[in-house]
Amino acid sequence: MIKKNITIAIDGYSSTGKSTLAKALAKSLGYLYVDSGAMYRAITLYALDNGIIDDKGLNARLLIDHLPKIHLNFVMNPECGFGEIFLNGKNVEASIRQMTVSQWVSPVAAISEVRRIMVSLQQAMGRSKGVVMDGRDIGSVVFPSAEIKLFLTASDDIRAMRRYNELSGNGADVTIQSVKENLMARDQQDASRSDSPLIQTEDAIAIDNSKLSIQDQVDQILTLINNRD
Ligand code: DC
Question: 10 and 59 in contact (C-beta within 8 Å)?
Fold first, then answer.
C-alpha cells in the first residue's frame, strides 16, 4: 500500500506512451493526472487561430504580447475521469491533437516566456502532491524533487505506429511516414532547445516500453513505489 502522496514525473520523447502510463498510474493511485504537453499544444492552437503563426512562420514576439490574454485550465470529464484542457473557456482537448498543432508546438514550447508561465501553472497544480505529470522537463525543471522520476523510451517504429493508430482512429488523414517525420523533428527540437531541453536526469529510471504492456509497466512502478515507502 502507498503510505503517502508523492509526485510522479514522467518524461520522454514523443509518443513513448507517457500519457497512457501516467493515466493508468493516476487511476490506480487515485492521483491527479496532468498532461503538460496539452498546455503547450493549446498555446500553439491559440497562435494558429489568431494569425500569430502564418505562412511566414511563428511570430514569437507577438505571441509573448498575447500571453496575458491566454487562459488555460483543466476541467474534469467525469466520463473518462481525467481533466480536459480549456483554452479561454473552450474545450480544445480534441483540436490540440491536429497535425498542424504538432508541427508548430516545438518552436512555441522553445519560447522561454511561454515556459515560465506553464511551469508555474504546473507547479501550482502539483503543490499538494498526489500528482502524476508527464512532459519533457517535469523531472528536471517542474518537479526536481519528485519522489519518482521516469524516463520512457520506445523504438521509433513503435512510436510512429502508436501515434498513427491514434490519429487515424480519430479520422485524421495522415501517413505513417508523415507521423514518423513529425515525431523525429519534434524530438530533435525538444532535445536541442536552450531553455529546459528534454533530458534524462540522473535520478530518473529509464523504461523501454517497446515490448511491455501497460499493466506490466504499472506493476513495475507500483512495486518501485512500495519498495521506497
Ligand atoms: O506530450 P506532447 O507530445 O503532447 O507535447 C507536445 C510538445 O510540447 C512537445 O513536442 C514538446 C512540448 N512540451 C514541452 O516542451 N514541455 C513539456 N513539459 C511538455 C511538452
Answer: no
Q: Report if residue 1 sits inside a domain.
A: no
**Any atom of ligand 1 within 6 Å of the Cβ of 17:** no
Ligand 1 atom 20, closest CA: 37
Residue bearing cell 530533435: 188
In a domain, 2, yes or no: no
In this prediction, residue 229 carries a pLDDT of 59
Nearest atom within ligand 1 for CA of residue 19: 1
Largest CA distance in the chain: 55
Q: Determine if ligand 1 sits within 6 Å of the CB of residue 119.
A: no
| CB 184, CB 190: distance < 8 Å | no
Residue 223: inside a domain: yes
pLDDT tens across 195-223, in order?
999 999 999 999 999 999 999 999 999 99
Tell me how crowded residue 127 is: count the other CB atoms within 10 A of its CB.
Answer: 8
Rounded Cα–Cα distance for residues 83 and 32 (Å)? 9
Cα of 227 from ligand 1 centre, angstroms? 30
Q: Is the separation of the CB atoms in 145 and 97 below 8 Å?
A: no
Residue 107: CB within 6 Å of ligand 1?
A: no
Say if ligand 1 is within 6 A of residue 40 CB.
Answer: yes
Record the pTM. Answer: 0.96
User: Structurally, how many domains does the chain consist of?
Assistant: 1
